[in-house]
Give the backbone structure.
Amino acid sequence: MRTYDNLVEAINDLRAAGHTTDFNIAFDQIKCTSTGICLLPSQFDIVAHHRFEGDTDPSNSSVLYVIESHDHAMKGVLISAYGMYGDSLNDEMIRKLGVHER
């Protein structure tokens, strides 16, 4: 797995590689910000993840997930805060995303 020095570098490289969809967490699913299409945890795979911590503030931390739908029609990224500013998720999404947090 490729490593990145910062979040911006990772996003730019992944977009150039075809991961152009921006996803957001919507409690029990992920949602494409431009189309409104939602995917349940059973409809996508996390193909990679990258953890970043803020240079000056350790609580400024995030995880970048590289996501592909099972039909490969959607490829993109999901940025999620962790720690104190973590997103509210349901149990199924926690299991899906949590596998990659270790």
Summary: Residues 7-98 form one domain. The mean pLDDT is 82.
